[in-house]
Amino acid sequence: MTIKEIQKEIVDEFSMFDDWMQRYEYIIDLGKNLPLIQEELKTEDNIIKGCQSKVWLHGEQKDDKIIFTAESDAILTKGIIAILIRVFSNQKAIDILNADMDFIDEIGLKEHLSPTRANGLVSMIKNIKMYALAFDAKK
Amino acid sequence: MLDINKIRADFPILSRTVNGKPLVYFDNGATNQKPQIVIDAIAEYYQEINANIHRGVHTLSQLATDAYEVSRAKIQNHINAKFAHEVIFTSGTTHGINAVANGFASLLKQGDEILVSAMEHHSNIVPWQMLCEKTEAILRVIPMDENGELIMAEYNKLLSDKTKIVTVNHISNALGTVNPIKYMIDKAHEFGAAILIDGAQAVAHLKPDVQELDCDFYVFSGHKMCGPTGTGILYGKEDWLNKLPPYQGGGEMIKEVTFEKTTYADLPHKFEAGTPNISGGIVLGTAVDYLNSVGFDNIQQQESELLEYGTKRLLEIEGLKIFGTAKEKASVISFNIQGIHPYDIGAIIDKLGIAVRTGHHCAQPVMNIFCIPGTIRASFSFYNTKEEIDLMVEAVKKAQLMLS
């Protein structure tokens, strides 16, 4: 699926929820089910600075695509990471670079884009795009 | 006794809703809310007397200057400073600490020692580290115990003839500990060291008497005591302020300027370069008047009841641990719930209208001592109620249920 299609799918899923509590419960579930990152990847280099919670993000190239794995010590953050991984992992660098992030607003998580919170979400997206930029430049 | 409904009516923001719920504001340690009288005074300044101070001969400039100096005198009176010129207007606590630390650069030499406590805000650590880099002085840390109390025996051991300045908060922002500053001030003076008290967290709860304390510097922010943001006070003993070089150069702080040599103005202007936050400075006086009209005895009584009730209610929650259990404590409760990240709790209870601080509270060394990433901090003000504490406890329980 393309990034656009996955984003659309996520927006459809979230549209089934009536209120923030259901949305948060869903994100918490996603967080709980996110596969853990390998211990050896929890390096200082992979830490995304500036988040209230600790976030590790690792990307590696597989053929012409990038595979992302990530983890956090806070469960809501982990759930948001799970969403980002679903959107961006296993995609081509150029597609990642060109992707817009409007869907975040559409699923009611815009508040996580505010400067304090998300140093989190904003930095995660920035780091994902940095990986894409680096891999794209290597071509 | 406070008429709490009457007090709450003074603060318009307290009647608003957040995310569809009534606001429960427990982030008073970060900044507290402003009474209508303070909000009105800001508008009144701009509507009636806005002009630059200490400069013009015209009527408005005189009025603004008078109001500014009246406010300085109010603050002098409030903290019982000996002279009005010992009261320097700043942009806040951080500014005050930096001005002092910067001034000490000319007084320290290699090997001199600066003592800071283990429970300082970053604002009372970093300026001293920068000073150490400049002067090759050494930073030493007064340790604390597991209750969040500074260990006085260790403090006494650290003090020596090499100690040039001690810096410690009156009340810890992360833990609520009220430090034994009178004792620490006297001890520092026995060794001829200066001592700076960071009163940022104290001034909303108590009225410091700088002459009785005998501290050399006492710094605080206006916005934590019902005043406007971007205001603060650096109190310094006259002798010390005369000894320290100015922090910034510019207008207002000069006596005479030629290209060959500039002489500095007398206190307090020497430390007040540039056009200050005039409305802020004036209105800080209004805030001080307001707090005194409520009465610090009343404030302390209400806050200690809230602290006691909040502690009891929170401890009912399974797996909840409070960090900072000093005998002398201000109305601050820092806590975590076993197995749950503080950020998750904070994000969920925000949705329920509860405003608390989560994270390291700009005191990472404190978090490192307890080996935790951060805490949830509820800090109460005199306008808060037990009913609000009940709402917070219910919200935390709900978050705990969602997250486990």
TrEMBL record, chain A:
Pfam families assigned: SufE (PF02657)
Source organism of the structure: Flavobacterium soyangense
The protein, known as: SufE family protein
Transmembrane segments: none
Source taxon at top rank: Bacteria
PANTHER family recorded: SUFE-LIKE PROTEIN 2, CHLOROPLASTIC, SULFUR ACCEPTOR PROTEIN CSDE
Protein family (similarity comment): Belongs to the SufE family.
Residue ranges constituting the Fe-S metabolism associated domain according to the UniProt record: 11-130
TrEMBL record, chain B:
Top enzyme class: transferase
EC number: 2.8.1.7
Keywords: Pyridoxal phosphate, Transferase
Molecular-function annotations in GO: cysteine desulfurase activity; pyridoxal phosphate binding
GO terms under biological process: cysteine metabolic process
InterPro entries: Aminotrans_V_dom, Aminotrans_V_PyrdxlP_BS, Cys_dSase_SufS, PyrdxlP-dep_Trfase, PyrdxlP-dep_Trfase_major, PyrdxlP-dep_Trfase_small
The UniProt record lists the keyword Iron: no
UniProt record similarity statement: Belongs to the class-V pyridoxal-phosphate-dependent aminotransferase family. Csd subfamily.
Stated role: Catalyzes the removal of elemental sulfur and selenium atoms from L-cysteine, L-cystine, L-selenocysteine, and L-selenocystine to produce L-alanine.
Name of the protein this chain belongs to: Cysteine desulfurase
